[in-house]
Design brief:
It is a single chain. By secondary structure, the chain is of the alpha/beta class. It has 14 helices and 15 strands. The strands form three sheets. A seven-stranded mixed beta sheet has the order 4-10-9-8-7-5-6, with helices on both faces. A four-stranded mixed beta sheet has the order 1-2-3-13. A four-stranded antiparallel beta sheet has the order 11-12-15-14, with helices on one face. The chain is globular. It binds pyridoxal-5'-phosphate. The site of pyridoxal-5'-phosphate (PLP) has 15 residues, from α4.
Amino acid sequence: MWKTRVNQSLAKEREKNRIRQRQVCQTDGALQSMVVNEQRYLNFSSNDYLGLTHHPKMIEAAIQGAQKWGVGSGGSPHVTGYSKPLAAFEEALASWLGFEAAIVYPSGFTANQAVIKLLIEREDQIIADRLSHASLLEAAILSPGRLYRFKHNDLESLSQYLNKPLQDHAGQLVITEGVFSMDGDHAPLDQLALAAQKAEALFMVDDAHGIGICGQGGRGSCDLYGIQPDILVVTFGKAFGCSGAAVLLSKRLADYFIQFSKPLIYSTAIPPMQAVVLQAAMDLIQSAEGEQRRQQLQRNIAYFKAQMQTMLQTIASHHGDDYYSPALIDSDTPIQPLVIGEELATLTIAGKLRQQGIWVSAIRPPTVAPNTARLRITLTADHCLAMIDRLVAALQTAILDRE
Ligand SMILES: *Cc1c(COP(=O)(O)O)cnc(C)c1O
């Protein structure tokens, strides 16, 4: 039975051309170069938005952290794993972001699952933006509550769900992201927070792609929109250049998590060495250098968008409708999706880019909606304008020469 099931599922994916493959990648953040199968590529596919993964201060922190504290935490936070650097980092993070408490989890995926698992009971309603990350939607589907998915960034659609009848003892949890991982756009957090507050719902924001990038000093999307959600999840695998995540919340909610959150209680705490690195990342993000890196990133984003606009216009005016008309989703974040539409065309264009030494990921359904297959182009502070010129020229060639 198992064998048939596995074989059939794999065969189906193969038929749809949707087999996913992991590639061994050797990246060098600062140079934006990546070696795959002994070929060197210019990397436009990384979430290392500020270029911190290879930053000398981060590497130094890792070395010193390991020398002083060892490489493993030796236990869950409730046993012996709650190290001094971890406790200090949680406190500093909470204070930086203006929350009473922060709880670190080993990954954003785990943190999102932990929040939903702990808070949602039978009859509760989860009202999540349709485009929420898989870690949120999967936890919501597996939870005993009901999941409603409101239209992307649509206040009216959210309000309709918030008005649904609710049992006396039940609650509503509204979920959205600060910056959407596949579209790169912002959620209108001020409006959504207000709607949630009016309905006495809890409001949760996953700011995986906003923290370190937007807001004053890189405080993220909530700062940008001047709100404080009940629960904020930030992750450390993107702008922080490392890995892990934290849930920011009130002291009372934190107590509840510390008593009852099983992914916290029964999982090994992050290594103290990692907490030292995360502290270094947070210091860098808040420093003058962090500000410069954000400015460089914004310059790269503006330059890329301007060059793309010219390039796409050239294609449209010379070739009319004979060609697909790829379009950039309007985004002012490092995530710059070029929507192609058809899956095969998207794969072909990504392949042609690779032939030209450029690495961009093709994102296809079910990760994104049907007929919106896209190239998810990401920019970082360490790209230079010449690299962006190379990308745009290669895209033009790849789009025109698709056959
Ligand atoms: C990357 C991401 C996560 C998962 O975080 P990890 O730390 O990589 O597990 C969660 N939510 C969003 C929106 C993400 O983009």
